[in-house]
Structures are given as C-alpha cells and as structure tokens.
Write a structure and sequence with these properties.
Layout (H helix, E strand, L loop, with lengths): L1 E4 L2 H8 L5 E4 L3 H10 L7 H10 L5 E6 L8 E12 L11 E14 L8 H26 L1
Parallel strand pairs: 1-3
Antiparallel strand pairs: 2-5, 3-4, 4-5
Length: 145
C-alpha cells in the first residue's frame, strides 16, 4: 500500500470528509509510485498520464499520514486516481494539472486520543453530502473535457 504524507491542515479536513481530494504534482516520483500501485509498471509514464487525463483508475487503498514515523496519525482511504485541475481552496494552483486522488471512503484511521475533532462523527455526517459532491464534480469535469 502506498503511503503519502499530508500536512496537518489538509489531513484534518480530509479525515473529516470536508476535503474529498488530494493533489500531487505530475512528476516522475509520483508517476512511478502510482504505476506500481496500479499494477501498470510496464507502461510508459506518458501512457499513464494520457490514460488518466480521460478516465479514472479503479479504486485502490492509500495510507495518508500526518508527519513521518510509525507513531503518527494516519488514515487509510479507498481512492480513485485521475489527472485534472484542482481547487484553489484545497491547495491547488490555478489552471495547473495534478494527480487528483478522489477519496471515495475512509476505511481505517488512527488519531491521537486527545484529538479535539470528532472525526468519526464528522465523517458519518458528511458521507452522503460528500458522495453527492464527488458525483457532481466528476460530472462537471467530464462536461468540461
């Protein structure tokens, strides 16, 4: 399973299901990792990039961690991968394409016992709203291509 570090600000709002996408720059470092996790190591980088610009991957699991080391908060999510522009409010630069990791659902999480955010409550309350938003976002993006 691929593990990706995330800054605390984004980690918290992703875990609470307010932010439903994560962005990674389109660079060889991430291209190689995504090819490996998708079982597509044999295709070229340009083939993966071209494919992801017009479709999204099948769902797979990723571990998001806040910080480095074994004792850091984390969550495991089922995501789909595509390439598109991101939202500035969620940290993307305007009109720049990224690997976009759509968070379909959170499968497991480990957060500190003294966490002030009721993650499980927020995730439950937002799950229906988030799924509707993901459907709407995907529909809008398909129309814009």
């Amino acid at each position: 399973m691929l593990t990706l570090p995330v800054k605390k600000k984004w980690f918290d709002i992703m875990l609470s299901r307010i932010k439903t996408e994560e962005y990674r720059e389109i660079k060889p470092f991430y291209t190689t990792r995504f090819k490996n996790v998708l079982g597509l190591a044999e295709i070229s980088d340009s083939e993966l990039i071209s494919w992801l610009k017009y479709t999204s991957s099948e769902p797979f699991k990723i571990k998001f961690v806040n910080g480095y080391g074994g004792d850091k908060p984390y969550f495991i999510a089922e995501i789909c991968l595509t390439i598109d522009t991101g939202y500035e409010d969620w940290g993307a630069e305007p009109n720049k394409e990224y690997y976009v990791l759509f968070i379909n659902k959170i499968i497991d999480a480990r957060v500190p016992l003294n966490a002030t955010t009721p993650y499980s409550e927020l995730a439950t309350q937002n799950s229906i709203k988030v799924q509707s938003n993901i459907t709407l976002i995907n529909k809008q993006r398909r129309q814009n291509k």
